[in-house]
Amino acid sequence: MTNVKNSTNVTESQQSICDWAEGIFGPVADPRALVTRAMMEMKELDEAVADRDLSEIGREAADVMILLYRLVDQFGLDLDREVQAKMAINRARKWSAKGDGTGSHI
After folding, report:
1. Which of 73, 44, 77 has its CA nearest to residue 61?
2. How much is the pLDDT for 7?
3. For the segment 13-47, what is each residue's pLDDT rounded down to a tens digit?
4. Interval 7-14 mean pLDDT
5. Alpha-carbon distances, residue 18 vs 27, 29, 47, 52, 101 (angstroms)
6. Contact assessment for residue 86 and residue 76, using Cβ atoms and an 8 Å cutoff
7. Is there a contact between 22 and 34 (Cβ–Cβ < 8 Å)?
8. Any idea what DSSP says for residue 28?
9. What is the helix, strand, coil percentage profile of the chain, to 5?
10. For the residues of 55-102, what is the DSSP string, one character each?
11. Which pTM was predicted?
C-alpha cells in the first residue's frame, strides 16, 4: 500500500505544498521568516549554479519556489495567477536588454 504523504506520484499545487509545510513546520508566525529562508535558499542556488551542479540547481530552485508558494499564500494570493498577471504586464512593456540575459523595462 502506498503512503500518500510520501508518494512521489502526487501532483503538487500551492495548496498541497502549503498544507504539507504547515503540517511539518507549523503555522507561519511572521511571513518575513519565509523571505529570510528563501534568501538562504537563493544563496544555495547561487552556489549550485556556480558549481554547475544540475541536480542541486533543480533542488535549490524548487526550495525557493516552495517558500514563495507558502509566502504568497500567507496573503491569500495564488502565485501561479500572480505570475500570469505579471507576464501580461511584462509582455506589454518595452524592454532594454543588458547583454547578459537580463534587462529592464523602459
Report:
1. 44
2. 57
3. 999 999 999 999 999 999 999 999 999 999 999 99
4. 84
5. 10, 14, 26, 30, 32
6. no
7. no
8. -
9. 65, 5, 30
10. HHHHHHHHHHHHHHHHHHHTTT--HHHHHHHHHHHHHHS-EEE-SSS-
11. 0.87
